Prior knowledge:
By secondary structure, the protein is an alpha+beta fold.
Amino acid sequence: MSEGAGKAQEKRKIQAIKGVRDILPPETALWNRVEQTAHEVFATYGFTEIRLPIFEETELFARSIGAETDVVSKEMYSFDDRDETSISLRPEATASVCRAYIQHNMQQLPQPVKLYYMGPMFRRERPQKGRYRQFYQIGAEVLDRVRPADTISGDLVKELRRDAVIDAEVIEMLTTFFEKTGLEGTALYLNSIGCKECRPKYVELLRAELAKVKDKLGADSQRRIETNPLRVLDSKLESEQPYIEKLPRIADHLCKDCAEHYVAVKRELDLRGVKYHENWRLVRGLDYYMRTTFEITATGLGSQNAVCGGGRYDGLVELLGGRPTKGIGFAIGEDRLILSLQEVVKRSSDTGVQSPLATRHSPPLYIACMGERAYATALGAAKTLRNAGFRVELPPVEQKFGIALGRAVQLGAQYALILGDNEVSSGEWTLKTLADGSQRKVTEQELIAAIRSL
Length: 454
Ligand code: HAM
C-alpha cells in the first residue's frame, strides 16, 4: 500500500454496521423510563429478572426455534468458536430462558417460575423503519413444570383452567405495561394454533387446499405449501388475499382439549376486561408455539407494526432435555415501542396533553466560580448538591461571570450559584434566578433549602 493510500485508509470514517444503530440522548432517557416501567409493572405480577448471555450454542436456537424457520436458516449471526463449537448471537431469548431453567434446576422451585429479561437480540433481516439487525426486546416467560399429581388424577379441566389463567394473566400484564407507558392505538390479536395432536391434521388439510390454488399464489407461498403451509396465512401479498380468506380455519379443526383451552383463555381475558380480536391467520414464525398465540400492534410504525409477539410453548423445555414443562411468554420490540411512543409524545405536545413518559429532566443548576479558593468551594457545593439529587453543571474551565451565565441559559438552567472572592470570604453565596436576573444571598447551610423553595 502506498503511503498516500495508507493515509486515506486511516481517514475513512467508520460507520455503524448496516441495520445497527446508536441510541443517543435525549432518546436514551425514554428508553430508561420504558425499562423502569417494565421492572415496576412486572414485579407487581410476581416476575423477577433474569440476565442471559448474548451468545449461545447455535444448536439451542436450531432445536427450539426450528432449523427451517427464517430466523434460524437465514438470519442468525453464527460463527465457529476456537474449539469449533458453532455459536450464535441470540436472535431471541425464550430458548435461553428454557435452557437456564433446566441448567439451574428451576423445576425444583415453587411453580410456575416467572422471569423477565431485556436486552439486545440479533437477526440479519432487511433493515427498514422498525426493523433492525440489532434490536431490543423486553420479554417475560412463565415456566410451569407438569406436576405428576395432576397427571395421575387426570384432572384435565383443572389443568386447562390453570393454563388459561396463566395465559390471560401474562396478557393482562402486557396490556397494563403498555397502558403505563402511554402507548396508544394498540390492538391485541389472539389465536390458537392447536397442538401436536390436531395441528398436523390441519396442516395437511391446508396443504391440500393450497395445492388447489397453487398457480394463483406467489413464489414464496408456492414454496411454503411444501415447507410450512401455515406461513402462507401470514402473507400480505394483495393478490393472494381472496384465496387465503377461503382456506379452512384452524378454530374449526382444534382437538377437544385445545378448543376448551382456547375458550377458557378468552373467558379469562373477558373477566379481566382485556379486549382482543381473534385472528385465525396469526401463526407466528417460530416453531415452538402451540395453542395460544398473540400479537399486539401499535400506531405510527408503518408496515412493522407488531410491537409484541408471544404464545404458549408447552414441550419446549422437554425438547431441550428438561422435564415436561409448560411455558408461555412474550417479547416486546422495544425499538418499535419507543418509535410509537415518540409519535404519542409528538402528538401530545401538539395537543398540550402530557404523555406519561414525556421527558421529565429537571433543569440543571449552574455553578459559576472565579479564582482558586472559589473553585475549591464550588467543588464542595457541587458534591453536596448532587448528593441531594440536584443536577449540577460545573464548567471545566474558569469563565468570566457574563460568559458563565450565558452558558447557563444555553443549558436550560433556571438558577446559577455565583461564587467569587467576595462570596467565599463573606460565606454569603449568590443565588441568581436567570429568568428575571434577581439575586439572593444564601449561606452554605441554607443552600439546599433555598433552592428547594425557589
Ligand atoms: P418475535 O415475534 O420474533 O417473538 O419477536 C417479538 C417482537 O420483537 C416483535 O413483535 C417485534 O416487535 C420485535 N422484533 C423482532 N424482530 C425485530 C427486528 N428485526 N427489529 C426490531 N424489532 C424486532 C419472539 O422473539 C419470541 N421469543 C417471543 C416469545 C417469548 N414467545 C414466547 N415467549
